[in-house]
Amino acid sequence: MCGIVGYVGSKNAQSILLEGLHRLEYRGYDSAGIVTFQDGDACLLRVKGKVAGLDSLVNDSHRDDSIGIGHTRWATHGEPSERNAHPHNVGDIFLVHNGIIENYKDLKSVLETRGYSFVSETDTEVLTALVDSIYQQDKNLFAAVSEALHMVVGAYGIAVVAKDNMDEVVVARSGSPLVIGVGEGETFIASDPSALVGNTNQVIFLKDGEVAKCTRDGVTVKDSADQAVEPIVETIEMDIQAMQKKGFDHFLVKEIFDQPESLSATLAGRVVKDQDLLRLGGLNMSEEELRAVKHIFIVACGTASYASMMASYYIERFADDVVIDTVVASELRYRSFNVPENSLAIFVSQSGETADTIACLKEMKQRGVRCLGVVNAVGSTIAREVDGGIYIHAGAEISVASTKGFTSQVVALVLFGLVMAQAKGMSIEDVRPYIDELDALPEEIAAVLDTKNEEVKQLAADYSQYEHAFYIGRDILYPLALEGALKLKETSYIHVEGQPAGELKHGSIALIDDRFFEVAFVMDNELFEKSMSNIIEVQARGGHVIVVTNSSREIEAERVVRIESRLKMFTPLLFNVVSQLFAYYVAVNRGNDVDQPRNLAKSVTVE
Ligand code: F6R
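^ thats the input. predicted complex w/ fructose -6-phosphate below
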């Protein structure tokens, strides 16, 4: 949510900042800006809309600028506009900010009495003025930023430059990610390591409350108590390939097609079929501790919460002495919930930076609950704050709508459930069918992509003009219906609801007429007939039903997508691939920006 870049070195700062912003644009894309400097002469470029708008503004007169900061925005305060775009400038100070300053109105009133006036509607401009007001006292930027942040309530990742100090960029974070890339005679700043790829793999992950002075020669860090901290430089592995479209038209479809590979990476070394072995290296829990678990909170937002819900349906099938609460983080954080004895909390997040999920993690830690993470982004806040966990290793997910993340999250959670159940005495005979199916799953997904792509493309063409839809399913297909509905609504802007199939008749069926289509997920199991009854009820009211099923039984529906697979338990993840492709092609048909849907941003680092 908002991307930050910064640079101090000897190269062309404008091109380094713009390249970084293009990589970070998936985090927010309603306005963008950079400021670079040469001997105190600032070149400030800002546009409403995407980073591409900045490319054409860059001019030769600032090619030698070797220090600067940049930002791509997802609006919180004030509409997307050039005036509200970052960097903001007040006095000598230029500042970019990711997050929300909650007490900005109070600070603004105080600053107005000191003669400051404001041109934007943003909290960021207020923070910029606050830093300037302190900076003017003794022109020490590092000290001024630290002092200003002591007066601030809220969340922030910031990068700051003073136009009369061409040697340093000061950065800080509290609740919003910030990473510093260490180069030879140059230092890079980004809110996400993906912006650093190709420049350096040596990074310092700033911790909450820390402030850092970045110069050409190195980095100085202090903590919130103004004590010097020795920065830890880590080497990160980032695959530039994962950040390219590899010949696909959009990241969304590329990431859907990535799934055989990304899921194989999730499983690698963890499911060893020929040894009947399941292992998870990073849990940091003994067998005894796993055995003791009686209650699990799985905490997440959006797609990650649907992945959690789906996984909980699986885990409940084999861990019968454990109660699982799958909870949406934005709700849990303000609930007065009880923590039963022997509880474990698992935080599921692709980005590892989702503010609501992090807030719940802090709360659980405070209550002494052991916390695990199921995270994709290596080195992210959640990954660093938990007691142990599972990296899903799905590779960079650039499209705002999460696809391969979902699949790997479900599988990683089921793996955890199986490892826990084994510690509790689940026999290898009972575990083996799961090992077999998990091992086969990447290939089965590849087969669906191979055989169903064209069919789903045509299906999408036939239903793209509808404005209303329901996704329905029973049991484990209910979370799938929720996820399918979310994927379609966020990419196509069609009004879509996900419902348990059996729940429609308790109210929602009142909506159905021939302006609706319904996607019904149906497994060939004991619930088949019940699902059929729900479909018939919908059709009787004029609804247009598309059934996605692994059954070869006769089905009366407008369209039937049949998945042939030898899988029994994990077919829902194959249905989900159909649902992902369908959402993608509907969005393309409607002419939408599929990778960066309106009003959204990847990684929601504000409340
Ligand atoms: C939807 C989507 C979001 C995220 C949610 C949580 O396609 O991507 O619903 O799943 O914002 O994000 P993470 O997993 O990064 O915590």
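The pocket of fructose -6-phosphate is lined by residues 301-304, 349-351, 354, 357, 401-402, 486, 490, 603-604 (CB under 6 Å).
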